[in-house]
Amino acid sequence: MLTAVRTDIGRIRAVNEDRALVTPDLNGLVFAIVADGMGGHQAGDTASQMAVELIHEGLQQVQPDASEEERKLLLHEAIQSANRQIYEVSRSRQQFSGMGTTVVALLATEQSLTIANIGDSRAYLRRNDKLIRLTEDHSLVYELMKSGQLTAEEAENHPRRNVLTRALGTDPDVEADICVHNWEPGDIILVCSDGLSTMATDTTLLRVLQGDGDLGQIADSLILTALEAGGDDNITVVLLKNAPGDTESKG
What we know:
The protein is an alpha+beta fold.
């Protein structure tokens, strides 16, 4: 399996509150996570860093032959534990009050993906000439879209498009969406913060993902695409390519 990780502060923000990690061999599985913190300087980056570290730590006991249900349960428990710990820190220290983070975390074998998400960071699957979104945003505008109160075009420019309906660490309990998807040799998984997804249409993302170059170069191109479109937020990209027998990592 091939992997690549890139993050960029963007053109506007003073601090990068995004965090990402890929572990190519976590007891025989691939682990990847993207977290986009919120709560201002120090609080947002503390929340996202805690999420990455705690969820990774919570998955250390995963077994290579774990069933889909076992992987789902492990992700659920790791996320619940991380949520409680981030919430307690936010309550106990004034400078961290109200902090939280999005999260997309996944465990991958060569056949399947177990994905958990909270917030508006996303996971996509590129298969041949199609781009399929694997996660649903937990945001105000997405809820308004689902209920028919907003069109997709209206949602893109809505003044409250960054308002989340669910985040890690802002409440004592939170529920992650957890799903399982099959993937095939040649497929690419894109996990990203909204600094990419709000700057590029699905058509643009697909075009870049189909581009020439290795996975690291494609990740660089995705970052550049967001920067050229304005780069008004932190931008983070994780790519996984189903390439059996290949474990090359690109940063």
